[in-house]
Amino acid sequence: MISCKNLVKEFKSVQALKNVNFNIEGNGCFGFLGGNGAGKTTTIRILTGLAIPTRGEVKVLGYDIVKDKEKILKSISYLPQHPSFYDYMTGEKWMHFIGELYGFDKRLIKERTEELLKKCGIWDARNRQIGGYSGGMKQRLGLAQSLINKPKLLFLDEPVSALDPIGRHEVLTLLLELKKEMVIFMSSHILEDVEKIADEIIIIDKGEIILSSTIEDLKASYTHPIISFELLAPVENLSSVLKNENWIVSIQEVSNHYKINVKDIDIAKIHLPKVLHNAGAIITNYQIESSSLEDIFLRLVN
Ligand SMILES: Nc1ncnc2c1ncn2[C@@H]1O[C@H](COP(=O)(O)OP(=O)(O)OP(=O)(O)O)[C@@H](O)[C@H]1O
């Protein structure tokens, strides 16, 4: 489906992608994760033929994205992070306009417009001007538009980050349905959402891929038990004290709230109270949790 080999993208002195390598085979939804400025949008723009790589080889659906772009474009679709529309058009007119750009005949355009506006939950608003749509409605119209060519491969850049919880839930439910029909490559920094719908994830950090794995394998290899605890008051140098303990894998600290990944929960249960007591800490809350995708992501990126 997608293969990137030694992909580099430079914008004058900025090296947005340093050396990106990954392969995507098979079906399902692929979550493309990274923090702000990690290189997600740049990668997606190259994969969809909107930007040219500085160096490296990129293949989409088996074709070279630079040399054979025309062969790829009809079978893929891209919903950018901030889709733009002609606000004076109605949702239905917009879909007709996009269908005409593809060169579809009138009957097919009408059929797909109805099917997709219904599927994306905006059929009832089809006769309203897009300028009056809410952010969530615009995102759903963007999704309907991106499905008009029945793509084999759908690229979504942060599709739900601008939506409220209800809008996010609706779009994610729709994506769960869509991934049965096409491959979805979705960038996001909302890890909870990715965890709900992705089968595999690829993590990019500072222009380099640092991990590519199925969610199951990722959790199996990176899941360490977590103990989270809260102290009555901050204790100076507590992180340094904890770092010296060889049964601790990693520490996250926010004010006087700590989350530690531990190798062996039984050893941790015995040692942690002693270490905290010796450091003069007073515990007000203590619980054992398991790693979420967010915990794993933070550990990998940090
Ligand atoms: N046209 C451009 N000119 C100069 N620098 C750019 C350009 N586009 C992107 N960059 C830089 O490349 C790096 C990667 O940007 P990119 O937009 O791909 O990140 P991102 O992971 O999508 O971030 P975000 O989550 O904030 O959207 C950043 O340092 C960014 O400033």
Q: Cα distance, first to last residue?
A: 30 Å
Strand order of the largest sheet: 6-7-8-3-9-10
Report the order of strands and helices. Answer: EEEHEEHEHHHEHEHEEHEHEEHEH
Per DSSP E runs of 2 or more residues, the count of β-strands stands at 14
Shape: elongated
Mean residue pLDDT:
89
Radius of gyration: 23 Å
> Beta-strand level of the residues, as a percent range?
25-35%
- Estimate nothing, just give the exact number of structural domains: 2
Number of helices: 11
CATH architecture of the largest domain: 3-Layer(aba) Sandwich
InterPro entries: AAA+_ATPase, ABC_transporter-like_ATP-bd, ABC_transporter-like_CS, ABC_transporter_ATP-binding, DrrA1/2-like_C, P-loop_NTPase
GO molecular function: ATP binding; ATP hydrolysis activity
Protein name: ABC transporter ATP-binding protein
Family: Belongs to the ABC transporter superfamily.
Structure description:
With 302 residues, this protein is an alpha/beta fold. It has helices spanning 40-47, 69-73, 91-102, 106-119, 135-146, 165-178, 191-197, 215-222, 238-243, 265-278, 293-301, and strands spanning 2-11, 14-24, 29-33, 55-60, 63-64, 76-79, 153-157, 183-188, 200-205, 208-214, 226-231, 248-254, 257-262, 283-289. It has two domains: 2-215, Rossmann fold (3-Layer(aba) Sandwich), CATH 3.40.50.300; 223-301, Alpha-Beta Plaits. The protein has eleven helices and 14 strands. The strands form three sheets. It has a six-stranded mixed β-sheet, sandwiched between helices. A four-stranded antiparallel β-sheet has the order 2-1-4-5. Strands 12-13-11-14 form a four-stranded antiparallel β-sheet. A hairpin with a 2-residue loop joins strand 4 (55-60) and strand 5 (63-64). Helix 3 (91-102) packs across helix 4 (106-119) and helix 4 crosses helix 5. The two termini are 30 Å apart. 32% of the residues are buried. The structure holds adenosine-5'-triphosphate. One of its GO terms (molecular function) is ATP binding. Pfam families: ABC_tran, DrrA1-3_C. Residues 2-231 form the ABC transporter domain.
